[in-house]
Write a structure and sequence with these properties.
GO cellular component, one term: extracellular region
Bound molecules: alpha-D-glucopyranuronic acid
EC number: 3.2.1.139
Largest sheet: 8 strands, parallel, barrel
CATH superfamily of the largest domain: Glycosidases
Pfam family, one: Glyco_hydro_67M
Protein name: Alpha-glucuronidase
GO molecular function: alpha-glucuronidase activity; xylan alpha-1,2-glucuronosidase activity
């Protein structure tokens, strides 16, 4: 047995000890007609496991109980209701999935779930589809590795050129996802390479094995597919959506998928993006392309998640008129109303690419007659690559609660909930759910799942915010700490809170300033600083720093016109220097270094100060964490300590490169006299 086989996988937020309050009680489970559902078996397993560990009992007859989990035909269509009467806490739900989610809500609440004053709570998920996308490859890609933008080892699904024989990690992962309400997972990279394309055909029986493990946790399986499949897999001369043979090929492919996996979720598609094939090759648009696939899966109740991440990745940096931020809106907004009902347009939260700070994508406000899902990135491509502590709950919360549309009365959460926009028809009752939320997963075959053990909190917070976007991300952090480190010394909880609570803002403060983005190193897969790394590249991600100023003019008046893609009041707010928020200033405007921010500081002094202050913050974390030695698991302690040392090194490099770069460009000294190199 290799060492790797002997190290137990970390239980994440489901250690046995977290089940003590529930597991020490008598738990009656009444499953009704859902008793045969595979999720019902999971509910029973969870109760058995918890009660066996903590001295309670599973009650399946009418005997006395302290807790009841009960099927109830009049319960909410999704989610569950919790009540406390006569000394008994009851969870009722309309199906086994709702009971599973309710059971985990009791676990999260701990003893509070059994207090006399526990109020009645109706808990229903906001986004109907809550998905994780894996950018996993079967083969190990020469540049990207096995998991594209993966920072936690190899894939949990694939090894040695095929789907793993031993999928026990997938089963454990499915349990984690089910416990936080995730209900969809796409198991391969959106960049679909040759081997992975075959999952749709020759690989189906293996995909079915994976789906069998997700199903008992209420999670449906999806595949990323190549738009060129009819050519690549089917040997047809074309993938043109208008070609009847192509349509027939997709229909037959979908029939085979559903014959093998009847509850298959559908397809995720990256088309005409960064070199992936798409409908443009045939003079068709994205609605034609998406509807082609949607019609193939529609008879089976399937959904197509079609990505809006489409832009010119062969841009000439000399061309100042093209603005990558505009691209998704320019491509997709004119297509509003043309997508079939079972297409969900998957829109990255910002117009660029998962930066530490971006404005919310205007596409989300521009397509009231299209089903939309917002796409987040749990894997930390641009936010420290799971070497740095960067708790992203506050970023996602800001995105989801942002009042984007209709005179700022509709927030992003209502859009992903599928609340019909102005001019849109309400979906007929009983139709497939609208909207959704999706994110790129951060797990791999690492012992701690996520490389950096504290990055587990991001996976947790994503699931919880997908369920309830109004949840307080800081409260979710404490919830995660309480579950993952049950019974831990107060110093452990306080230190974790201090390290993680503001870590996104700290990360932002030592990296690219004021919303300008990027400045990452192309030679190191976007890790670490390289201020001009993308400045003269084809990728459309520029900061335009010169001796006088920095930032991208995206105004209607003098710039690329991007601000005009927003509805009021945002188009005016962002257009005007006087109202543009500081944290997005350089995203929207090119300003002189002496421009005074709302904070009262000049842009250049802000760049100098915040980078230096942020490194001081990170440096203090090292000692704080070191004081916890012996109070948390030794292996976990060592892993976090090693990553914190790297975070200090990397943050210092960021600080010194960014400060020095802007001093050399501007010649303006740092008024504090702190060293510049
Ligand atoms: C980013 C990322 C790529 C990924 C792409 C996408 O550009 O760096 O690795 O393929 O996003 O979202 O499709």
């Amino acid at each position: 047995m290799s060492t790797a086989d002997t190290i137990p996988v970390h239980p994440a937020w489901l250690p046995d000890a977290a089940f003590a309050p529930l597991g020490s009680r008598r738990v009656r489970v009444a499953l009704g007609p859902d008793a045969a559902d595979p999720v019902a078996a999971t509910v029973l397993d969870e109760v058995r496991r918890a009660t066996a560990a903590h001295g309670g009992a599973l009650v399946t007859d009418d005997g006395p109980s302290d807790v009841v989990l009960r099927w109830e035909p009049d319960a909410p269509a999704a989610g569950f209701t919790t009540t406390r009467t006569g000394g008994v806490t009851s969870v009722v739900a309309r199906d086994a999935v709702g009971l599973l989610h309710g059971l985990h809500a009791l676990v999260r609440a701990g003893e509070a779930a059994f207090g006399a004053d526990h109020p009645t709570v109706v808990d229903t998920p906001v986004a109907p589809v809550r998905m994780l996308d894996h950018w996993d490859n079967i083969d190990v890609h020469p540049v990207m590795g096995q998991v594209e933008r993966g920072y936690a080892g190899g894939s949990i699904f694939y090894a040695d050129g095929r789907v793993r024989d031993d999928l026990s990690r997938v089963a454990a992962y499915a349990r984690l996802l089910g416990s936080i309400g995730i209900n969809a997972v796409a198991i391969n990279n959106v960049n679909v390479h040759r081997t992975e394309a075959r999952l749709l055909t020759d690989g189906l029986s293996d995909v079915a094995r994976v789906a069998d493990l997700f199903r008992p946790h209420g999670v449906r399986t999806y595949l990323s597919v190549s738009f060129a499949s009819p050519v690549v897999l089917g040997g047809l001369p074309t993938s043109d959506p208008a070609d009847p043979d192509v349509q027939a090929w997709w229909a037959a492919a979908a029939d085979r998928v559903y014959a093998t996996i009847p509850d298959f979720g559908g397809f995720v598609v990256k088309a005409d993006s960064e070199g992936q094939p798409g409908p443009f090759a045939y003079g068709r648009d994205h609605a034609d392309g998406a509807n082609l696939l949607a019609r193939a899966v529609a008879p089976h109740g399937g959904t197509v998640f079609w990505r809006a991440f489409v832009y010119n990745h062969e841009q000439d940096w000399r061309d100042r008129r093209t603005d990558r931020a505009r691209a998704a809106y320019d491509h997709f907004a004119p297509l509003d109303g043309r997508f079939d009902d079972n297409v969900v347009l998957q829109v990255k939260y910002g117009p660029m690419d998962f930066q530490t700070r971006e404005p919310v994508s205007p596409v989300l406000a521009a397509m009231p007659r299209t089903r939309l899902a917002v796409e987040l990135q749990v894997t930390q491509e641009y936010t420290g690559q799971q070497q740095h502590v960067c708790y992203l709950g506050p970023l996602w919360s800001q995105v989801l609660t942002f009042p984007l549309a209709d005179g700022a009365t509709r927030d992003v959460a209502s859009i992903v909930a599928g609340v019909p926009g102005p001019g849109a028809d309400a979906p007929p009752s009983g139709s497939t759910p609208t909207g959704g939320i999706t994110a790129v997963s951060n797990v791999g075959d690492d012992e701690f799942w996520t490389g950096h053990p504290l990055a587990q909190a991001n996976l947790y917070a994503y699931g919880r915010l997908a369920w309830d976007p109004q949840a307080d991300p800081v409260a979710l952090l404490d919830e995660w700490i309480g579950l993952t480190f049950p019974g831990a010394d107060r110093r452990v909880r306080d230190t974790l809170h201090t390290l993680m609570d503001g870590s996104w803002l700290t990360y932002e403060a030592y990296t690219a300033p004021l919303g300008v983005g990027f400045m990452v190193d192309p030679g190191r897969q976007h890790y670490g600083p390289n201020v001009d790394g993308y400045e003269y590249s084809k990728w459309g991600t520029y900061h335009f720093a010169d001796r006088d100023g920095v930032g991208v003019d995206r105004t209607v008046a003098t710039g690329t016109g991007y601000t005009g893609q927003y509805p009021s009041p945002w188009r005016e707010t962002y257009e005007d220097l006087a109202t543009c928020p500081d944290e997005l200033l350089l995203f929207f405007h090119h300003v002189p270094y002496g421009h005074v921010l709302h904070s009262g500081r000049t842009v250049i002094q802000h760049v100098y100060d915040s980078r230096a202050d942020a490194v001081d913050v990170v440096t203090a974390w090292v000692d704080a964490w070191s004081a916890l030695r012996g109070l948390v698991d030794d292996r976990l302690h060592a892993r976090v300590a090693e990553r914190l040392a790297e975070q200090v090194r990397s943050a210092t490099e960021w600080r010194d490169q960014v400060r020095t770069y802007f001093f050399r460009k501007s010649g303006v000294p740092d008024t504090t006299g702190r060293p510049i190199h």
